[in-house]
Amino acid sequence: MLAIRAAKLFDGIGPELVERPVVLAEGGRVVAVLPGGSVPAGAELLDLGDATLLPGFVDTHVHLAFDASDDVVGRLCRAGDEELLERMRESGRATLAAGVTTVRDLGDRGYLALRLREETAADPTAGPTVLASGPPITTARGHCWFLGGQAEGVDAIRAAVRERAERGVDVVKVMVTGGHLTPGSDPFHVQYGHAELLAAVREAHRHGLPVTAHAHSAAGIADAVAAGFDMVEHCFFVTEIADESDTGVDYDRRILDDMVRLGVVASLTLGSLPGGPPPPPPVARRLPGLAAGMAAMREAGVSVVCGSDSGIFPFKAHGSHPYSIVAMAERGFGALEALRAATSAAARACGVACRKGCIAPGFDADVVAVAGDPLADITAVHAVTAVLREGRRVGPGKLLQS
Question: What's the predicted TM-score (pTM) here?
């Protein structure tokens, strides 16, 4: 049995921190959380001093196949499968070192993330738990078409969903709108009609799979919600800028209310590494509208979770997820909501709430230790001092005999 001792503990729900906790782990699971710092006889002790223990972060949106370079698409297309899989392993290790013990990979090539899922399941120290969508479903030459998920028409989309179900994916992803990464793609317009989107949702649900929508624009989000998608990625409600008075953002309160009523989750991909390029003028112009819109989303009660979208650009490098947590807190959600969005709420949205996202008996012993108190200062999530996945230490920290 391993006893993990620290100064404080956030269990994934809060709002109060446990003082001087001892987390007992055995067989990869948490068996008890004891306050007061006492360690049972015979247990191995990992004493993390003044650190705060948190559940391992759950990143709801990553692309392990993208290498966060200046030529993401070109490098992916030139790489063979084994080379690409090795890059994904490296991406997973960097992600795990940042305290992310579970990722949802929302776009790979050739279902390579399923291979990585098996590897990290067999060896928890090799990387995070992987939940995978395989290649996202998209239109011909549509957003991320080069990943191999092109399908158009109701029958082809149903077949694409069936293929993913047979492969054993954890979630189906559909590119409802275009995106910025793909040359020639338009993030402001939808790629599919209602019948196609409805077919994707019904086929996914028929196979017991959740379905999430890549959707930047207000029109795409509205279409995804109307079709019954379980989640919306990005969910920024952007629009084309028509004139000088146009904010380029349209958070429609009716759509927000529909999301609450239907239980549609918004997977926000905020945050990036510091020191990146300044936002281009169209993005800078939208920032006030985005801030106001997120306040409206919070006021409406939309369920939100925290994703990084890591891998797509240099300032979205693998291991940058803590910056997404900080960005959520700084954009009006507060430290407690941001931490929940990266732990218990994220695990619930990804369908793994029975074993991830909380530090409690019966949950996987996925634990990250940070220096300081992240409820008082959210930037403490950057100061990772130890990481454990299924009770096995993969980050810094000294193991001592009691």
Answer: 0.96
